[in-house]
Amino acid sequence: MNPGILAVARAELRAGGRALVVLGLLAGVVGGLLLGATVVGDRTASAYSRLVQDTGLDDARAYLPADLPEVTAGFAGLPGVEESWTAYAWIAQIEGPTLQYTAVVAGPERPDDLVDPVIVAGRAPRVEAADELLVGEPLAAAAGLRVGDRITLRMLTLRQVARFDVGFGTPEGATRRMTVVGIGRMPSWTGPLGDSMSTPAFAAQNAGAAGGRSGFARLAYTGDPVADAQLRDDFVAALAASYVGHPRPLLVGNYVPEVPVFPTTETDPAVAASERVLRLGLWGFALVVALGGTAVLGQGLMRHHLRGGADQRVENALGLTAAERAGARVLAALAGALPAAAVAGGITLAAGLLEPIGSQARFEPEGGFRADWPVVLLGVPAVVLVFLAAAAATAAWAGRGVATLPVLTRHRSVRWAVRWPALFVGLRLALRGRALPGGASGLPTLAAGAGIAVTVAGIVASTMLGASLQRLVDTPARYGFTSDLTIADARDSEMRALAADSRVAALAEVETGRVTLDPSRSRQVDAYAHVAIKGDVPISLVSGTLPTGPGQVALGARVAAREEKGIGDTVDVLSSDGVPARLVVTGVVVPQPERGAPLGEGLLVTPDQLGQLFRQPLASAHLVAEPGQAASVYADIADRLEVHLPGMPPEIDTLAGLLRLPEILALVLAAVAVAGLVHTLVGAVRRHTRDAAVLAVLGATPGQVRAALGVLAGTTVLPGVVGGVLLGLGAGRVLWWQVASETGVAPDVAVPIWPIILIVPAVLAGAAILGALPALRLARTPVARSLHTA
């Protein structure tokens, strides 16, 4: 190596070693934040898919009627089935102060890679233990169950399960005393899987009293979307064909869906929406940190190397080339590269301690520390290389030489002939930019304004998303929950008693029947009809009107988006009894889901229309209590009726986990906006130091110079702020529309008017202040010095 390079590097370390270490630490923090965001983002975005993999989530599941053993026997031979598990299923009443039920699944030992919940507390039940129970997280939360609890299950017979809608009296099945030994996590605890699992020993002991069978299958997917879709269609058709020629089972149809579900391909849209918003927020954070950190780091390195500009002229005279001068400074920058690597690596590893953010944490299959070694091993060297590359670039730029400008003397002030000189001069300075040393032209106002616009747009869009999320979470009616209490399987005598209760303000019977929407695709949804008994229980209407007669229907918001149906369109439905109907869409609603149906699914029809489709629909009751009376009504009826308080549905709970993200992102963007504004305005004033000095020479007063620089600052930021607000309003509306339509709620966005309106004057005031500070310092600087250093 050239001895001159080593000598220059040593001199650089002696003169600015501390500054390089500080800049290296800054690079490490910025790089570590970027890599840490990547680690957390990957853990967040992959939580659901990793849980699917770790639990061996089945590709297809279906209810198999206990009274048709032929259907059960043929399940493993359906088209595309590679492996399967056929379990028994029971509905059992949990003995306690309130009426509550659980669906228990157990059977012969299952394949190791099929339907294997992740244990988040306790352990899995022992195969030989008939009194051990693994409960799903939703049931544990709803019933307040913990590991070690002893519960009594009073099981229903098949005939009693079939009479859920009309009442069945006291459970007639066996009574079992069970111990909760574990709490399990699955992507979904719904449908044939139930909400708790037991053992082969339990299945052998209670098989004769099972209310049904549950089939789980791994399908021979090829990865080709078309071929895999055809395989699912063949599976559905073959399962339907297995019912032909047999008596109609007690449960399949209105109460239990006949069409199978495909858990690995039918992901809850709310999960996808949450993942999208979280990724957007994390990558927005990473982008902001990258832009802001790069600007600060580049500015610091530039200032560091500009101080050595005179040294580079001497080195040039001594025969060192530009590449050698820059190489010497890169060699010296290694002093900062080592702390950059250490800090970046430490932050990246520490990020492995963070769980997935927001609601995606409930899908994390691995608790605690999770190191992302590929990010560490590839990202840390990348941070070091970027730091060294920035050092090389700024050193080369600083070494290009600065032209010596003539020294001018100050003349006495003269009055300008133009009435508004500061305005026109400031506009001219802002719009034309300025030539930088070495002949390169400076950034025009358009470039600076574009950066400000992007940042302001991010703040506005984040604020709108946060306000819309908050309004949704705080207003249950917006996601269809308009009642104080819901009573499952309500009967006439109970409805009459509730209607006579003075504490009840409104009561409606909600009749439900399962229909197939578009029979060619066998997509099943619930059809609802509201029968007013007392007062008015409102229905969340998104657009259009509610159906008023036979032949009309209001679609759930998610159904309308998925089927691409609007007001005036028609939909074909087929009831579980085989009755077809063509219905005209009159509106879009968010019905309160029954039986754990997804939010925004279902159809709303009139009672007469539902009566034409079903002989005996299921019935529940929605109750609105007088102010302050809901708890009293609940306490009186919870011991004899299956009554539910208005809990937050999983889709809204998923979105509620995002509430803090828009606020954090908006704050980070605001901090970056302030930093960028300071950098832009201070840099703009400094670039025009010579122009200000020339103005003073021509007779401008200090006040006029400050006014011109103030106009320069306002002209730089105003277009970006206004454009950013408009861009943010559009982006926020589109983002919320996508989230709401996928979740199944009303897509109208909440616009926080005053915070958005105040952005423009706040930024302009800040620009005026930030522009005045360097202008004041400039006014106190002798003109000769300004002309010499400009």
From TrEMBL:
- Kindly indicate where the leader peptide sits in this chain: none
Give the Pfam families listed for this entry: FtsX
Superkingdom in the source lineage: Bacteria
Q: What is the official name of this protein in its record?
A: ABC-type transport system, involved in lipoprotein release, permease component
Q: Where is the ABC3 transporter permease C-terminal domain?
A: 664-782
- Which keywords fit this entry according to its UniProt record? Cell membrane, Lipoprotein, Membrane, Transmembrane, Transmembrane helix
> Where does the sequence pass through the membrane?
20-40, 280-302, 330-354, 375-398, 664-686, 707-731, 751-776
Q: Name one GO cellular component term.
A: plasma membrane protein complex
Q: Which GO terms describe its biological process?
A: lipoprotein localization to outer membrane
Where in or outside the cell?
Cell membrane
Its family? Belongs to the ABC-4 integral membrane protein family. LolC/E subfamily.
Membrane-topology annotation of the record: Multi-pass membrane protein
